[in-house]
Design a protein that fits this description.
- By secondary structure, the chain is of the alpha/beta class.
- Helices cover 29% and strands 26% of the residues.
- Strands 3, 4, 5, 6, 7, 14 and 15 form a seven-stranded mixed β-sheet that branches.
- Helix 2 crosses helix 3 and helix 2 packs across helix 8.
Length: 333
């Protein structure tokens, strides 16, 4: 009989009331897949917080092991690309939503969902980046593909103290952009400037209903907030600029007009990290290995053990988390 391992399990009763507990599982209890991975590190993303707290219908199959990303080592494989001992990363693909996820000692998944851990990067480093950082990189790549360069002018990052935002600030500043960081946490101004932000603005400047067009303030931006914030970012983007939209911390609505698009030629770039093609994932992780300053990566992350996951999920929804929360799944306490 195989050994057991701990897993966080989200269940709900016949009245659809959700509960979260810790279970002892075996590999045989996992869902089907052609690669089994010993999970060494994971992270707590905003989406994981939504799943564990039940604040949003992230989980679509019960019971469910949450956790949308992990890094670890292959223990078994019948997939042509992977063999035992390979170091791998997973982001998205419905893991933690419809397929058992990362908050367990072991995971069994489709090998097509995995990418190799970049050389020189540890599992903990990869999860300090995590889905949030990988999404930030996809956003930056989309802006670059649109032709945005530092010479075009400043860029704004909303939700800048969060996981996506903090990595976006670090990436964009290293690439030479003048970064305007929008945050509702003024106490984080010094930390954001250490990451590379040139200016800090209060999120209140963007979070309320605004005009269809405003003063042109930036050449582009990365928005992880949605709703009125994204509408105002678009309304204040310069002619020919672009905004990458990758989150919905304020809401999934977009109370905007077509004015920025038809009068200023502004582009709205949608960023999907869950089902992004493998070639794009490989490029993003390669870039993260070179374009993200290691010192800044350490500055945006804190590390907890398995026992701290549920509390961290509540904290991230309550806006108490700065940067990235890494979970060391090998820790004994």
């Amino acid at each position: 009989m195989s050994h057991t391992f701990k897993a966080i399990l989200i269940s709900r009763d016949e009245n659809k009331k959700q509960s979260v507990g810790v279970a002892e599982l075996r590999v045989e209890d996992l869902m089907e897949g052609d690669v089994t991975v010993a999970v060494e590190a994971t992270t707590v993303n905003y989406k994981d917080g939504l799943a564990i707290t039940g604040k949003s219908p992230v989980v679509r199959r019960w019971p469910m092991i949450p956790g949308i990303d992990f890094a670890g080592t292959v223990t078994q494989s019948t997939h042509k690309d992977w063999k035992p001992g390979d170091a791998v990363i997973l982001n998205g693909w419905g893991v933690g939503e419809v397929h058992y996820g990362a908050y367990a000692g072991m995971a069994r998944v489709n090998g097509d969902w995995l990418v190799p851990l970049p050389a020189g990067m540890s599992a903990l480093d990869a999860m300090a980046i995590g889905t949030a950082g990988y999404t930030a990189m996809l956003s930056v790549m989309a802006l670059e593909k649109h032709g945005l360069t530092p010479e075009r002018g400043p860029v704004v990052v909303t939700g800048a103290a969060g996981g996506v935002g903090s990595v976006a600030v670090a990436l964009l500043s290293k690439l030479g952009f003048h970064v305007i960081a929008s945050t509702g946490r003024p106490q984080e101004a010094g930390w954001l400037k250490d990451l590379g932000a040139a200016e800090i603005i209060d999120r209140a400047e963007l979070s309320e209903p605004g005009r269809p067009l405003g003063k042109e303030r930036w050449a582009g931006g990365v928005d992880a907030v949605g709703s009125h914030t994204l509408a105002n970012v678009l309304a204040q983007t310069q002619y020919g600029g672009a905004v990458a939209a990758c989150g919905l911390a304020q809401g999934f609505d977009l109370p905007a007009t077509v004015m920025p698009f038809i009068l200023r030629g502004v582009a709205l770039l949608g960023i999907d990290s869950v089902n992004a093609p493998k070639a794009l994932r490989l490029e993003a992780w390669k870039r993260l290995g070179t374009d993200l300053d290691a010192g800044k990566l350490r500055a945006i992350s804190s590390t907890i053990g398995f026992a701290g996951i549920v509390q961290a999920a509540h904290d991230i929804i309550d806006g108490k988390v700065r940067g990235r929360v890494v979970v060391d799944m090998t820790a004994t306490s």
